[in-house]
Amino acid sequence: MVSKRSVVLCADDFGLTDGVSRGILELAEAGRLSATGAMTNMPGWRRNAPGLRPLEGRIGVGLHLNLTTGAPLGPVPGFADEAFPPLKEVLRRTLARRLAPDAIRGEIARQLDAFEEVRGAPPDFVDGHQHVHVLPVVRQALLAELKGRGYAGRLWLRDPSDRIGAIRRRRIGRGKALVVKALARGFRRSAHRAGFATNDGFSGFAPFDLSVQAGVIFADALTALGSHPVVMCHPGHVDEELRSLDPAVESREAELAYLASDAFGAVLEEREVKLAPHPHAASS
């Protein structure tokens, strides 16, 4: 029997809108996803979370920590009251260390609470919308909150960086991958020191250019995988709410169609890949 490589294929942004959530649920039910991260500050989280119940044990469900889209669940003094700032502003302020750690930790706690109120349990993992969880100040606040809740050893954290050699072997999204790698420097070490497992290997950076077909993007993402890899994706049905929130619109429909296709199933067989809910799941 051929041993297959276990890969976490994680759909980001569950709860962003009804259309995005519906597309993720369709793929998960078909066995074409193995994890999803939830944006619990968005109204769509509570509306769509019941759809995850039949998938219990089949996919990992994590917190997709969000500090750049929609509104916070409570005031974040000096950062956000009615709406989160855009990513460029968040980057500027985190890199300059111009954020109050306690205020950021308070919003992290609220988003974790919103997850647990609905699911009745801690998340299986934590990552970040636009990778905000690895930014300075945010990462320290996140680790402190998770440790304070006694979650060390109970959930894993997504490291959005990869080896330079692996990034260079992929043709798509190299620039994005290198920027995120720089921003995430030291995150894995800090997570391990705090008692949290992480993935080893990360891919799935994609252009918004629809001339690059989804099949090419995912074939590239499944190249040069690490020992415990995560591949991110952003599928979903387009609705008017999505158009008002996010620039990645038509690309979500393209990813959804490809991941549901026989062509993607054939790629998984060809690459001898098994989708798993946890990066440290045993291969078989």
Automatic annotation (TrEMBL):
Keywords: Carbohydrate metabolism, Hydrolase, Magnesium, Metal-binding. GO terms for biological process: carbohydrate metabolic process. It holds the Pfam family YdjC. Its cofactor is Mg(2+). One of its GO terms (molecular function) is metal ion binding. It comes from the Bacteria. PANTHER family: CARBOHYDRATE DEACETYLASE (PTHR31609:SF1), YDJC DEACETYLASE FAMILY MEMBER (PTHR31609). This is Uncharacterized protein. It comes from Microvirga subterranea. The lineage of its organism: Bacteria, Pseudomonadati, Pseudomonadota, Alphaproteobacteria, Hyphomicrobiales.
